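Listing S7. Sequence submitted for prediction.
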Amino acid sequence: MERRRRPSKRRLAVLLAGAAVPALLVAGCSSGSGGSSGSDSDADGGKDGSASAAPSATTTPPLAPARFTTLPSPCSTVTKDTVTKLVPKAKHSGGTATDTADTGGSRSGCSWTGNGTDGFQYRWLSVSLERYDSSAALGAADLQAHQRFTDAVSAAEKTAGTTATGVTGVGDEARSISGWTIVSKVKSQNDSVVVRTGNVVVLVEYDGAGLEGKKNPSAKTVDGDAQQAAKDVVAAIAAANA
């Protein structure tokens, strides 16, 4: 997907518990000073009491396991019906896997391109997936994915001339960024949908342009189609981990 503290309550509680230990020690010593005949035993009792009252060491709770442990085959994440609708007469209907995939199964992608049934309606669809695992060094998987989602949306929204809107009903959080670009004197209507579902971040990019003076698809159409592809990908992720 390249393409595109103040002290916590727990820390305060530990500090307060630690601060209480000297007070307990003082109290133990005071109770042992009542008489000379029992000073040794009283002192020992004070020490035992203070030791038992000291706060026990706390352990960090285990991180929540990642919701999704695997990614689906990227070129199977968008249904055939959706591909046919979004990229009619695609050069490779089965999609072309991107070279961003890794052997660890944490990153993958696929794209489709074509010029439509009449040869004058350019379409390009791309999906990218990134999966995160919980780790002591980096934190919970969902939180890592949320940060990546936030960074991806922020980067997309900085592109001049784009409009960002929230998307409901797709994953745990989603945002759509619409805009257009001119490449080789051809104006292209573009849309990016960024989605987080559990510990996986999905980026769907969809571009459409009319060639040789043909009419471009509307921003609404491109956005709706991109969102449909995003829904397909989210469903594929869930199915792969069922």
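Caption to Listing S7: primary sequence and predicted structure tokens for the chain studied. The CA atoms of residues 113 and 222 lie 15 Å apart. The chain is about 35% helix and 25% strand.
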